[in-house]
Amino acid sequence: MKVLVWMLVLVLVVVGVVSSEGVDAPPNVLVLLADDLGIGDLGCYGNTTINTPNIDRLASEGVRLTHHLSAAAYCTPSRAALLTSRFPTRYGMDANRVLQIPVILHTTSNAALPKDEVTIAEAFQAANYTTALVGKWHLGMECSFLGKSCLGPSNHGFHSFFGIPTTLFFEFGEPGSFWVFPLWKMMNRALIATWLIIMCSLMFGYYKKILKASHIMAILLISHFLFIFLWFTFNHCNFTSGASTLSWAAYVLLLPFRLLDGNPARPPSTSSVRVSEWFRTNYNSFLFRDNKLVEKPIQLEGLTQKLVQESTQFLTSRAKDNRPFFLMHSFTHVHTPMFSARHWKGRSRHGRYGDNVEELDEGVGAILDTLRELGLEKNTLVYFTSDHGGHLEAVEPGTMERIGGHNGRFKGGKGQGGSEGGIRVPGLYRWPGILPTGVTVDVPTSLMDLMPTVLSLTGLPNITQLVPRSADKELDGVDISRLLTEYNVVEERGKNEHTGKDQHPTRRIFLHHCQEDVHAMRLYTGEHVYKMYLYRHQWHKGSTQCGWGPMNYCPCFTQIYNLTTQPMLYDLIQDPYEDYPPITHNTSEYKAVTRELLAYLQQWRDRVYFPPSQISSWGNFMWRFWVQP
Ligand SMILES: *[C@@H]1O[C@H](CO)[C@@H](O)[C@H](O)[C@H]1NC(C)=O
Ligand SMILES: *[C@@H]1O[C@H](CO)[C@@H](O)[C@H](O)[C@H]1NC(C)=O
Ligand SMILES: *[C@@H]1O[C@H](CO)[C@@H](O)[C@H](O)[C@H]1NC(C)=O
Ligand SMILES: *[C@@H]1O[C@H](CO)[C@@H](O)[C@H](O)[C@H]1NC(C)=O
Ligand SMILES: *[C@@H]1O[C@H](CO)[C@@H](O)[C@H](O)[C@H]1NC(C)=O
What we know:
- By secondary structure, the chain is of the alpha/beta class.
- Helices cover 34% and strands 14% of the residues.
- It folds into two domains: 26-172 and 285-621, Alkaline Phosphatase, subunit A (3-Layer(aba) Sandwich), CATH 3.40.720; 186-275, no CATH class.
- Strands 1, 2, 3, 4, 5, 6, 7, 8, 9, 10 and 11 form an eleven-stranded mixed β-sheet that branches.
- It binds 2-acetamido-2-deoxy-beta-D-glucopyranose (NAG) (5 copies).
- The site of one 2-acetamido-2-deoxy-beta-D-glucopyranose has 4 residues, from helix 13.
- Keywords: Membrane, Signal, Transmembrane, Transmembrane helix.
C-alpha cells in the first residue's frame, strides 16, 4: 500500500513538472548546420579514428537518422531547400545546363532566394520567436547601390545575422597580391611586346616630327587605359584553368547570336570560372553584421570561435529576456580552405581536414554547453545536419593533401546529386523528454522535412496558418515527427519491422536532382528502399570521383551515362552501398518499380512549373561593381 501511495505521489510530481514546463515556455529551436561534412566523418556514424565527442553525444541523447538526404549536392540549392522545404528548381535556385553555375558566386550577385518563398525562420518570426542566423548564408545578399545595405537573411525571416554572406573560397587562405605580372603567361608576354612596339613607334614618330605632342599624349593615355584593363583581366580573371581567355571572349561575343538561333552552346568550361586570390579576397571575403560589412578580409584563424561566441551571446540574451528563439548556427567548417585556431593545429589523426572536423565538433560542444548552463537544454529542440556530402576531389593545390570529407562506404560526393555519397548526410534530432534517446531511424528522410516536422513537434500552427502567403506553395518535405517520437516503439515489436507503418507514410518517393536534371529517384515502400538511376557519372577508374583539385566536381550534364531508356535499379536494404550488380531488367520487381517511378516523374514534370535558373545566369556570374560593399 505504502509503495502504491509513493508511486502515486511520484507520478503526480512528474506529471506536474512536465505540464508546468510545457505550459509556460514555448520550446526553442536550434539548428546546427555543417558545411560539406561527410557522413563518414563522425564518430556516431562509424568513424573510429576521428574525435567528435560532442556530436556523438547529441546522437546518443537523441534520434540518429541513417538515411537522411539533402535535396542537392551543392551549398546554395541545398540550403534553399532546407529553409523552404521545397526543391530549389521550383524557384530558380538550381543550375541549368547552359551555364552550369551551381552556386551563388559572390556578394554582388543578383541571384537570391526569391522574397516570395517562405522560410522556416519566417514561420518562427510569425510565431513571435526571436530568430537569428550565425555563420554562412549563401542565398543572395540583395545589396543596394554602393552596397550600402545588403538585406540577405533579414529579407527571409532572420531578425539578426552575423556571418559570411556567400561562402568560403579556397583562395581566402592566400590573400594574394594586386601587383602581379607573371611572365610565363603568354598574354603578359604579348602585352610587353605590344607596349614596346607602341613606345618605339611613338618615339620614332616624335623625332621624325610625324606626330604632335598632343597626339602622343592622347595615344599614351588611351593605350595605357587599355593596357591596364588587359593586364587586370589577364591576371585577375583566370579563365585559363580549363579554357583560354580567348575561348571565353569568343563565347561571350557569340552568345547573343546563338541565343537568337535558340541554341546557346555550352560555355568553354565551368570549372574555369576563376578569379585571382587578390580579386576573390577583396570582393568576397566579408563578415557581415546584419546589413553591414564589418570585417574585410575575414580573419580565418579564430573565425569558428568568433561565430560560436556570437551564438552563445544570443542564447544568453534569450535566457535573460525569456523569449523563445529560433537560432540557426551555420558553420563555415569543413568547407575549403582549411583553417583552425592555433590550439587546434595538428591535433587530429587526419591532417588539416581532421583538425577542421574536430574544431567543428568543439564549436558544437560550446554551443550545447551554453544551452545547458543557461537551463535551456530541456526546452530546446536541437537539429544537426550537413548541407551535402564531403567533397572527394578537394586537395591542397601544391601538396595534394586531401582536404575533403569522407562519405563512408557510400559512393560519390559533393556535386553528384544522384550519387549516394553526395546526398546521404548525418541527421540528428534531440529534445530531452520529448524525443527518445539513443534511437536510430533507418527510414529515408529529407533535410526538407525540417520545417513541417519542427512546427509540428513544437505544437505551433502549420505553415499556412502562420504565413498565409504559403498557401499556394506545395511543400516537398513531410512531417516526420511521429517517426521521431514513436519509432522506438515500433522497433521493439520486431527487429525486421523497422517500417513505422502506422506512424509514417508507408510509401514515399524522393527525387534526386543533379543541378536541374533528375539523376535518380528513390522509392520507400516499408519493406524496401529502391533507388533508380536515370544518369550516372563517369568516374575516374578505380574511384567514385572526377579527378583531383579544390575546384573539381563531376559535371551533371556531360561525362555521364544516359540510362533513361533502361534505368538502373538497386534495393538499398539488400545492397546499401551499391556494391553488387543492379536488379535484372527482366524481373517483375524491376518492371513494377521502374514503371511506378517513371510515371511519377512524368506527372511531376507535367504538373510542376520550373522558372528559369537564377544562379546559372549572367547576373550571378557578373561582378556588379556598383553594388559592391
Ligand atoms: C574518419 O574520417 C577521416 C577524415 O575524413 C577519414 O580520413 C577516415 O578515413 C575516416 N575513417 C573511417 C574509419 O571511416
Ligand atoms: C504573435 O503575437 C501577436 C501579437 O501579440 C498575436 O496576435 C499572435 O497571435 C501571436 N502569434 C502566435 C503564433 O502566437
Ligand atoms: C494547415 O492547417 C489547416 C487547418 O487545419 C489545413 O486546412 C491545411 O491543409 C494545413 N496546411 C498544411 C500545409 O498542412
Ligand atoms: C538521354 O537520352 C534520352 C533518350 O535518348 C534523351 O531524350 C535525353 O536528352 C538524353 N539526355 C542527355 C542529358 O543527353
Ligand atoms: C532474366 O534473364 C536472365 C539472363 O539474361 C535469365 O537467366 C533469367 O532466367 C531471366 N529471368 C526471368 C524472370 O525471366
